[in-house]
Amino acid sequence: MDGIIAVLFFVTTFLAAAIAVLMGAFVQSRLRSRQEAAQGQALLEQENGVPGLLQEEEAHSSIGVYDLLLQKLNMSARLRRRMDAAGLTWSVGRVTAVMLLLGSICAAVVIDVQWLPPGTTLAAFAAGCLLPNLYIGKRREKRFQQFETQLPDALESMARAMRAGHPLQGAIDILAADAPVPLRLEFRRIRDERRLGMPWKATLENFAKRVPILEVRLFVAAALLNSRTGGKFTEVLENLAETIREGASLRGEVKAISAHGKLTGTVLTVLPFCIAGMMQITSPQYLTTLTDHPFGPTMIGAGIAFVIAGHFVIQRIVKIEI
Description:
- The chain folds into three domains: 1-25 and 64-138, no CATH class; 144-249, Receptor-associated Protein (Up-down Bundle); 251-318.
- 80% of the residues lie in helices and 0% in strands.
- The protein contains twelve helices and no strands.
- It is elongated and about 80 Å long.
């Protein structure tokens, strides 16, 4: 019952804070609309104004006050880059709000558990805030794997298009129209940046920043080197595609070999919690000896910390980078 009351308290607090933010956002939006109207009137009065930006900076949140707060934090730009790499169109404000809500719920669940060690509420809040970030990381990794799979075929298609007489820009336009997702979206972005007048070097470097994997960096380096020195770029693309395929095959073999170690680490991490849950169901008095002892909460906290640390150590050992 106390846990339910705590959850309701945190949810009510979160809703009250959200209402306060919305009220501030309404005032901020009215002020901003007046400023924009004044700026627009000033621009209309100018006979020869300078051209505006090709693309204005995207707001972190639709709530003005919250957007100003996020702009002061350095983590907002990093989170935005991670979501772009994961192919997500969510706003930074929405993701951070979900982080705070999940963190509050996780903290409310454990706040009244007496046998947990001090600091568990703060740790639960941090764990809840990390859940959306973990999801974004999984989406990002999956998208990068799709890039690794699709890039060799795209490079060969580009080489064939250039052999048929198309320039590099024309080959990219073909991939922007016919390549599978997510590769098609990135090549469309390259095409649009070129049409807006961005130099080749800046366009390709932006591509390497959006998709920071080795295969893309190799393609960008080869394209930039060919633009300066010339040569048979079609042969370079074909050789690069073959090299990427061989590397992907080798990584697949290593991943299959290390899968047993990763599964073992996961089982060893989950097993203590499963055993504790089964004992709580079958013999609750057996665990009471530990929870009622003065040093019990400290020992439980140390055990949980060592189990989690052991999981990351095992995952680090079996992770083989090529």
